[in-house]
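Supplementary Note 3. Input sequence used for the single-chain structure prediction.
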Amino acid sequence: MKISGRRITFSKILNELDKLALEFTGILARNRVRYAVVSGYVAILFGRNRSSEDVDIICEKVGYERFSRLWREVNRRMECVITSDRRSAYEDYLLKGTALRFARKGTFIPNIELKFANSDLHVAALKKPVEVRVNRLTLHISPLEQQIAYKLYLGSEKDIEDARFMFALFRDHLSLAEVERLLKGMRIPLGRAKKFLGWQE
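The predicted structure, written as discrete structure tokens, is reproduced below.
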């Protein structure tokens, strides 16, 4: 793995979740929609050995016309498993803060969970995403510090293990001051977070 600034480059044998994520984010990129992959899939992308049925993606809020173009391209290979109505998908789901789920036609899992950015954390992730190049393909993820802090905020055993995995893997490339800032903002005691992460000075 090569890490340079906000770019991470590596190779791996792609699983079905990887292939779906790379295909969907490629469509977002071609349509010039800013996005960031977030949550559990990020740890899986980097080798964490656990299962997941979805890839969570946040994207910038776009108008209906741009969404329609995106919808058409996605539907060449995939379908929305929540609604087949494009207008409803946009107005009744995305605009109201509810995620859409897309899967390959005729299937339900694995799937993409797509929602518009609707929080300060989401906006920050879209402004400064990390570029990941895997097998010469590219996708964007939210900042590693944000991934770790938010996983601790969620607090389930699975989420804490995701955070621990990411912290151990990228320890020498993290801004620890930024991790502390985010933990404070989420009201997570630093001592408790350090214990979970195995964070030693």
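The first strand starts at residue 2 and ends at 4. The chain has nine helices and nine strands.
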